């Protein structure tokens, strides 16, 4: 995330990422098929963390507006505390990877994210 945040997606090579992680390039390829696979894994991790923050801030009581503001402020605080992750998300968000990354998160089999998504869909049906 640090390399992408500083150099951008196209400026971050697998060699640079591996060096920053303190591993050999070959080791990176053992765990990730390519740079896209690595970027998507990092993106899913950041989004999962944001989901945890959002769910923790979402009080089950209160108006939809109050819940929205609580979530919005909690996510903003979380990203302000970790500007590298915020810049990483910004880099991905304006890149050709944006749609693929978003779809990877939505299609995730992560239980916490799936539960949060189902909860949001259920609540939206009643609004």
Describe what this molecule looks like in 3D.
With about 130 residues, this protein is an all-alpha fold. About 75% of the residues lie in helices and about 0% in strands. The chain is built from eight helices and no strands. The protein has helices spanning about 1-5, 15-20, 25-30, 35-55, 65-80, 85-95, 100-105, 110-125. The mean pLDDT is about 85.
Taking the alpha carbons of the first and last residues, their distance comes to 37 Å
Radius of gyration: 16 Å
Quaternary state of the chains: single chain
How does the overall form come out from the CA principal axes? elongated
Strand content: under 5%
- Mean pLDDT across every amino acid position: 85
Which structural class fits the helix and strand makeup? mainly alpha
Largest sheet: none
Low-confidence stretches: none
Q: Say how many strands there are.
A: 0
Helix and strand run: HHHHHHHH
Descriptive labels:
about 130 residues
Brief description of this entry?
The protein is mostly helical and 127 residues long. The chain has helices at 2-7, 14-21, 25-31, 35-57, 64-81, 83-93, 98-106, 111-126.
